[in-house]
Specification:
By secondary structure, the chain is mainly α. It has helices spanning 2-30, 32-52, 71-90, 92-113, 125-144. The chain has two domains: 17-89; 91-153. Helix 1 crosses helix 2 (32-52) and helix 2 (32-52) crosses helix 3 (71-90). The longest helix has 29 residues, at 2-30. The chain is globular.
Length: 153
């Protein structure tokens, strides 16, 4: 079972990188927010098609779901637009390193405090060292491997 989750993580990471590059390229042609809009329209249509052909997970009743759980779509639109703007200027690798580093930081806070219904997993010193090393590594990649590609955008 663990192998399945590792495979899903590998597939998710690979497809996320592909999606970000494709969206950023579209953003260069039509603008960051317009490409984010198109990304989400196509995504919604794709999800609707999968639901129509039978990939159901239950009834679609949203009456008793807390409002905050629907903010993911809004955040997704902003995230795609930010990536669409930044990736052509700083590159995919640097953007991914910083996204991952700060995602880990915020994930630790969410886990530690159990925010938004997440299981509470206490923050430990070892986790702190790991995150610190990732952020320091991201800094070195950004400052030492930086090109001037953003000057041409």
């Amino acid at each position: 079972m663990e192998l399945l989750f590792l495979l899903l993580a590998f597939t998710g990471g690979t497809t996320l990188s592909f999606q970000q590059v494709v969206n950023a390229s579209l953003g260069l042609h039509i603008g960051s927010m317009k490409s984010s809009f198109m990304n989400h329209v196509v995504g919604a249509l794709s999800a609707g098609l999968l639901l129509l052909i039978g990939l159901k997970t239950g009834n679609l009743f949203v009456g008793k779901i807390p409002f905050t759980y629907f903010l993911g779509g809004c955040v997704g639109v902003l995230m795609v637009a930010m990536c669409n703007f930044a990736i052509p200027r700083i590159g995919m690798m640097v953007m991914t390193i910083f996204i991952t580093s700060f995602q880990l930081l915020s994930s630790c806070l969410i886990d530690h405090f159990g925010w938004l219904g997440a299981k509470s997993i206490p923050f430990t010193f070892v986790r702190g060292i790991g995150i610190f090393l990732l952020v320091v590594g991201a800094f070195f990649v950004f400052t030492k491997g930086r090109t001037r590609a953003y000057d041409t955008c």
